[in-house]
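lol ok so funny story. i was supposed to be doing the assay writeup but got distracted and ended up predicting the structure for this chain instead. priorities right. anyway since i did it might as well share w the group, maybe its usefull for someone
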Amino acid sequence: MNIPVDAELDLVLQRELPVPVSLVWRGLTEPALLKQWFCPRPWGLSDCRIDLRPGGEFYTVMQDPEGKQYPGTACFLEVEKEKKLVWTSLLHGNYRPAPPVTKDDKPCAEMPMTAIITLKGDGNKTKYTAHVMHNTEAFRKAHEEMGFYEGWGTTITQLEDLLKAL
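and the output, tada:
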């Protein structure tokens, strides 16, 4: 199923990566690899759990340069090996509704979103598309102003560099 982009609610980032789709998939789905690229440096990912199935948990702990940690949990909605990953912050593992946001959550926690990552392999290249959907124009705008394009673009460059070294 191809979800149309709503310019008022969605953000989209596309890149062509000079690595095979099998490596990109590993980078997206193996916790040990995800920890090495998922946050723009000097931020990092101190913990990660991936239950790679529809209804499975996608758990990360982002860590800022001062060491403060920000856990986040999402739920995979769709997993199509080497083609598509869909997850949402509105649900936790086993499709449980996410609990209310607290003051200790990371700043973007109050911004519900669904991410659709699609991959299209072509030999030793992969077209990567991140389609991030929000439920209000205000949340889309806030995510963009927080640095969506710079942040997600930086992390994809970090992923590319990591995968080239494998």
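The chain has a mean pLDDT of 94. The domain at 10-165 is CATH 3.30.530.20 (Alpha-D-Glucose-1,6-Bisphosphate; Chain A, domain 4).
back to the writeup now i swear
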